[in-house]
Specification:
236 residues; mainly alpha; Arc Repressor Mutant, subunit A; Tetracycline Repressor, domain 2; 10 helices; 69% helix
């Protein structure tokens, strides 16, 4: 029985000329505006093209599909964010300082670029191509700093080495997603610094051994945190 011949390796895309690179950048800038305003499903490629005075077909000569264009836009937004977190992390020492910075920067994403947060949470992560897309890798890189903070804290003797790092990372980001949902899809505002302090304390409470507290202490912390999100004043 004959086996199918292996497909030849795909050639790397040739670099764009200066003129085409400028046009690609214009398309990306317009797409970013429309995607953040209207979401993926609500965006028409014709509107993106119209904003820079070109025909719709020209967009597809640069980006084969609308989702390819979305991935390119989000990649351009993620890379500077990852770099910023990496630089901030490198300047800090100690588990609490590092976790506080990670939480603070992530909350700011929700407050300052809610369109990005809505895209990622509501449309990108639920898309069929997410796991195989480059965005999945970007998300792993973006959230890796929690893993680094935990691993560094174990090495420094701050916490026990039996901590489940993946669970901590999932709870940290998942909890923030839950708390910030009313900010993204409602009219609520939040005090970034106050929320960051409370949330960091809550995470640290589960990681660092502390003297026993009275019953209901953890529930009280959660209630105060939700009150910050529900009624906190705007500001940072």
């Amino acid at each position: 029985m004959k086996t199918a011949a292996a497909a030849p390796p795909r050639k790397a895309a040739a670099p764009l000329s200066e003129r085409r690179q400028r046009r690609a950048n214009e398309i990306l800038a317009a797409a970013r505006e429309v995607f953040l305003e209207k979401g993926f499903q609500g965006t028409a490629v014709s509107e993106i093209a119209g904003r820079i005075g070109i025909v719709e077909g020209l967009v597809f000569s640069y980006f084969p599909t609308k989702r390819d264009l979305l991935h390119a836009v989000l990649g351009e937004m993620y890379e500077p964010l990852i770099q910023e977190v990496a630089e901030g992390y490198a300047r800090l020492e100690g588990l609490r300082s590092r976790l506080r910075f990670i939480v603070w920067r992530h909350v700011r994403v929700y407050v300052e670029t809610p369109g990005l947060a809505r895209l990622v949470l509501h449309e990108v992560r639920t898309g069929p191509e997410y796991d195989s897309s480059g965005l999945h890798g970007l998300q792993i890189r973006y959230t890796q700093f929690v893993r680094m903070a935990i691993e560094d804290a174990v090495k420094d003797g701050e916490i026990d080495g039996q901590v489940d790092v993946d669970s901590v990372r999932a709870m940290l980001y998942g909890g923030l997603e839950h708390l910030m949902w009313p900010v993204l899809f409602g009219a609520q505002k939040v005090n970034v610094d106050a929320l960051t302090e409370r949330y960091t304390d809550l995470v640290m409470h589960g990681l660092v051994p502390r003297p026993a507290q009275g019953a209901g202490a953890l529930e009280a912390r959660l209630a105060r945190l939700e009150a910050i999100v529900a009624g906190g004043a705007a500001g940072r």
